Request: fold
Amino acid sequence: MSPRRPSCTHRTSQLVTPVGALLTKDEYLGAVGSGHIDYVAWEPGPIAVRVRGNAAVIRYQAVLEVVFGGHRVPSTRYWHTDTYECLEGRWQVVWSQATEIR
Reply:
């Protein structure tokens, strides 16, 4: 019996926030759309990119100021790492993680 290969059609992306919350794409976009997450400032730095086949990873630092659930988070620097897959000819984010730099 051969080992089962992972499916290449997985389309649910996930975001891990700096406080460790896991959000699906729909949850994240819903929170932004409703104003629960409100980006006041987003200043990304240089972006490093690695591509292998149909997968890519980007890494960068960004300074963010955000209002989250009505609470203002002061301007803070974060590392961001995002993983993409090329599915049906389009690059789509699969996982995204942000980590506060202290």
Summary: The beta strands are 14-16, 22-24, 37-44, 48-52, 55-68, 71-87, 90-100.
